[in-house]
Design a protein that fits this description.
Number of strands of chain B: 7
Strand content of chain B: 5-15%
Strand content of chain A: under 5%
Number of strands of chain A: 0
Number of helices of chain B: 20
Distance between the termini of chain B: 41 Å
Shape of chain B: globular
Oligomer: heterodimer
Distance between the termini of chain A: 53 Å
Largest interface: A-B, 42 and 37 residues
Strand order of the largest sheet of chain B: 3-2-1-4-5-6-7
Largest sheet of chain A: none
Helix content of chain B: 55-70%
C-alpha cells in the first residue's frame, strides 16, 4: 500500500480519530451504559460487565469506521461529541441515583 | 481514507499489523506458554515437582503461616507516598487473608493485605505474598522465580513494563488492532472458504507465505477473535476504569447497599474477636455443595476483617469442572462459624462474563482443549510472522531498486521476534538450571538474574539479527534466520540435558513415571529443536540457491517451539 497519496498530517489525524476519538466515544458509552443499566434495575456489576463487553465491540466498529469514512471531520465530531454527550448523560443519571 | 472501503481496510491491516505485530508475537507466544504456566513452574522449581494438593487445613497449617506474614518491602515502598508520616514497623490490622489453588497446583500461593495507619485514602492496603508447600507449611524462597506463572504469564499481558501500567495499555491496544486486523483481513481477501484449503509451498516465497498467512489466520479465526476480545474484557477495569473514576460515587454507594443486602460487613467494627474453626466451615461448605449435587474442592478461601467481630470467611468452590474460575461462594461469620450467606446462582450477564473470561484463563480441567489453545496461539504466531515476511517479500524488489533500508529493518525485527524470542525463552530456562541455589551476598536475587538472562539473550539475538541483515537490501535472505535456528537446535537439547544433570529427571524417568509437567516441557523443547534444525537446513539450501522447496517452513517451524 503506498502512502504517497496521503499526507502525514492526514494519517495522524486518522489514527488520532480511531484511537483517541474511539476511546472517548467508548468511555461515554460505558459510563452511560453503567449508569443506565443500573438505573433500569440491573445489578451494579452486571451493568458494568455488560457495558464493558458491548463497549469493546463498539470500539472495534468505530475504530474501523474512523479509517473507512470519507469525511474525517465528521468522524472526529461524532466520536468526541458523542463521547462527551454520553459521558454527560451518564453523570446526570448518576447524580439522580445518589 | 481511500477511494473505497477495501483499500482503507488494506492500509489499516498492513501498517497497524506491522507495527503492533511485534507486540502481538510476544502476546501470542507467551500466551501459548501460559497455558502450561504451572507445569513450567515445576520444571523451573525442582523442589516443587510433586502431585497437586488440595487446600490444606486452615486451623492447623494456614493460620500459623498467615500470622507470621508481613507486607513485602516492595508493597510498603509503593504505598509510601500515600501515607502521612512514616510507615510503622509492624502492620497489625489485617484487611484480608487469602489462598487460591487449582487442580494443577502442588504449591499454594497465599496473600495477606494490611491496613496502613495514617493513609491519605481509607482503602490503601499493603500486601504480602508467599508460596508454601501445602503439606508442611514451609515457605519456598522468595527469590525463586516461577518462570511460567510468574514470568511468562505476566509477560503475556503486561510485557513486564510496569511504569504507569504502560505494558497493559500497549497489549490492550495491540488486542484492539488484532481484532481490527482480523476484520480487515477478511474484507481484503473475501474468499474465506477457499483460504482454508490453499497452501502452495512450492510457489514463490511471496505466494506461499501469503497462503500460510491466510490459512493460519482463517483456520483459527474464531480463536484469535475470542482471545483478543476476552483479553480486553478481562482487563476492562484497567482500560476503562469508569467505575473507579467517574462513577466512583455510584460504585461506593452500591458497595454499602450490597453490604446491607448480603449481610457481609463492609467495614471493621473495631471490636476484637477470635476466629472459630475455619476447617469446620469448609466441611459445612462442602456439605452444602454436595447437597446441590456438585461436591468439590475448595478453590479460593478468604478471610475479611481478620480478628474483628465483623470478620467473615468466604469459601469458594474450585471451578475444576466449570468454566468459571471459582463459584458457589458460602460466607461464614468468622467468630462463630454461622452461615451469613450463600451466593445466588449467577445472573445471565454474570454467566456471560464468567464464560468469556473463564474460557480465556482456562483453570478448569480439559487437557485436550489446553493443547488446542497452544496450537491456536502458535497459529497466531505463524500468521503474524508470515505477515512480516510477506511484507518484506512483496517490497524487496522495490526496496532493492531504491536502496531502501526499510525491508532490512522489518526483517531483522522479524528475526528478533521469531527466533530471538525463542532463544530468550531457552535462555531463561538454561539460566534457571545453571545458576547456583544461593548466590553471594550483595548479588541480585536468583529470579532477577534469570530475568536478566532472558532479556540479555533477546537483546543479543536482536543485535545479531541487525548485524547480519545487510543481504536483505539486495533482496537476499538474512543469514541470521538460519544461524538462530541452528542456535535453537543446539540449545534445545542442551536445556533438556541440563534439567537431567541438575535434577536427575531425565525423559525416560519422567515419561516412565508419567510426570507430564516436566516430561511435556522437555519433549516440547526437543520437538522445537528438531523443527529449528529442519528450518535451518531448508534455509541453507535456499541461501545456496537450490530450489525453494518448502521454503516458508522456517517461519512456522521456528514458532512451533514450546
Amino acid at each position: 500500500m503506498s502512502t504517497s497519496t496521503l499526507s502525514t498530517r492526514h494519517v495522524i489525524a486518522r489514527i488520532g480519530a480511531g484511537v483517541l476519538g474511539g476511546y472517548a466515544f467508548v468511555w461515554g458509552f460505558i459510563a452511560l451504559g453503567l449508569a443506565g443499566f443500573y438505573a433500569v434495575g440491573l445489578p451494579f456489576h452486571d451493568a458494568e460487565a455488560l457495558s464493558n463487553i458491548l463497549g469493546f465491540l463498539l470500539f472495534l466498529v468505530v475504530f474501523l469506521w474512523a479509517f473507512a469514512a470519507s469525511n474525517l471531520k465528521r468522524v472526529w465530531m461524532i466520536l468526541v461529541g458523542g463521547g462527551l454527550l454520553m459521558t454527560g448523560i451518564g453523570a446526570l443519571i448518576q447524580q439522580s441515583l445518589l | 481514507m481511500f477511494q473505497n472501503f477495501r483499500l482503507s481496510m488494506a492500509w489499516l491491516h498492513t501498517w497497524f499489523g506491522l507495527v503492533l505485530g511485534f507486540v502481538l508475537m510476544a502476546v501470542f507466544f507467551f500466551g501459548a506458554l501460559s497455558v502450561f504456566d504451572r507445569e513450567i513452574d515445576r520444571w523451573a522449581i525442582p523442589e516443587s515437582r510433586f502431585e497437586p494438593q488440595p487446600m490444606p487445613s486452615f486451623d492447623t497449617l494456614l493460620k500459623p503461616v498467615f500470622e507470621g506474614m508481613q507486607p513485602s518491602k516492595e508493597s510498603i515502598d509503593f504505598a509510601r507516598d500515600k501515607v502521612n508520616g512514616p510507615m510503622p514497623e509492624r502492620f497489625d490490622t489485617i484487611v484480608t487473608w487469602g489462598a487460591y489453588t487449582t487442580h494443577r497446583d502442588p504449591v499454594l500461593t497465599i496473600f495477606a493485605g494490611y491496613e496502613v495507619p495514617n493513609a491519605k485514602e481509607p482503602d490503601v492496603t499493603v500486601w504480602g505474598n508467599r508460596t508454601i508447600d501445602p503439606r508442611t507449611g514451609v515457605a519456598f524462597p522468595d527469590d525463586q522465580l516461577k518462570i511460567g506463572s510468574g514470568f511468562f504469564y505476566p509477560l503475556h499481558y503486561s510485557l513486564h513494563f510496569h511504569w504507569a501500567n504502560l505494558g497493559y495499555w500497549i497489549v490492550g491496544f495491540a488486542s484492539l488492532v488484532m481484532l481490527a486486523a482480523l476484520v480487515s483481513g477478511v474484507v481484503m481477501h473475501r474468499k474465506i472458504f477457499r483460504e482454508l484449503f490453499t497452501f502452495r509451498p512450492k510457489k514463490s516465497t511471496q505466494r506461499s507465505t501469503l497462503d500460510l498467512h491466510n490459512l493460519t489466520g482463517v483456520v483459527a479465526l474464531p480463536f484469535h477473535f475470542f482471545f483478543a476480545f476476552t483479553g480486553l474484557v478481562i482487563f476492562a477495569g484497567i482500560y476503562f476504569p469508569v467505575s473507579h473514576t467517574q462513577m466512583k460515587p455510584l460504585h461506593d454507594q452500591h458497595e454499602v447497599i450490597e453490604a446491607q443486602e448480603t449481610g457481609l460487613p463492609h467495614d471493621r467494627a473495631g471490636v476484637p474477636a477470635p476466629i472459630a474453626s475455619v476447617d469446620a466451615m469448609v466441611v459445612e461448605a462442602q456439605r452444602r455443595w454436595a447437597e446441590r449435587g456438585m461436591g468439590g474442592d475448595v478453590g479460593f478461601l478468604t478471610l475479611r476483617h481478620v480478628g474483628d467481630t465483623n470478620g467473615y470467611v468466604s469459601i469458594y468452590r474450585a471451578g475444576t469442572d466449570r468454566i468459571a474460575l471459582t463459584g458457589q461462594g458460602i460466607h461464614f461469620k468468622a467468630s462463630t462459624g454461622e452461615v451469613l450467606r450463600e451466593d445466588l446462582p449467577p445472573t445471565a450477564v454474570e454467566s456471560i462474563n464468567e464464560f468469556l473470561t473463564g474460557l480465556h484463563l482456562q483453570h478448569f480441567r480439559h487437557w485436550m482443549l489446553r493443547w488446542l489453545y497452544v496450537l491456536g496461539g502458535l497459529a497466531g504466531c505463524v500468521c503474524i510472522a508470515t505477515g512480516f515476511i510477506f511484507f518484506v517479500e512483496k517490497r524487496k524488489r522495490q526496496y532493492a531498486k531504491e536502496g531502501s533500508q526499510n525491508g532490512r529493518i522489518v526483517d531483522a525485527l522479524a528475526v528478533t521476534t521469531v527466533t530471538g524470542m525463542l532463544l530468550a525463552t531457552l535462555g531463561i530456562l538454561i539460566a534457571n538450571r545453571l545458576l547456583p541455589a544461593s548466590l553471594p551476598f550483595g548479588w541480585p536475587g536468583r529470579g532477577d538474574l534469570e530475568e536478566y538472562f532472558f532479556w540479555g539473550t533477546w537483546v543479543v539475538a536482536m543485535a545479531h539479527a541487525f548485524l547480519r541483515s545487510a543481504p536483505v537490501v539486495q533482496g537476499e535472505i538474512n543469514p541470521a534466520w538460519r544461524e538462530q535456528c541452528l542456535a535453537l537446535a543446539v540449545l534445545a537439547p542442551v536445556t533438556v540435558i541440563l534439567n537431567w544433570v541438575t535434577t536427575g529427571d531425565h525423559l525416560l524417568k519422567t515419561l516412565g513415571e508419567g510426570y507430564w509437567p516436566v516430561a511435556g516441557l522437555d519433549l516440547s523443547i526437543l520437538v522445537g529443536g528438531v523443527l529449528a534444525l529442519i528450518a535451518a537446513r531448508h534455509l541453507r539450501r535456499r541461501e545456496q540457491g537450490a530450489p525453494v522447496q518448502g521454503a516458508t517452513d522456517f517461519a512456522g517451524a521456528g514458532v512451533q517451539h514450546g
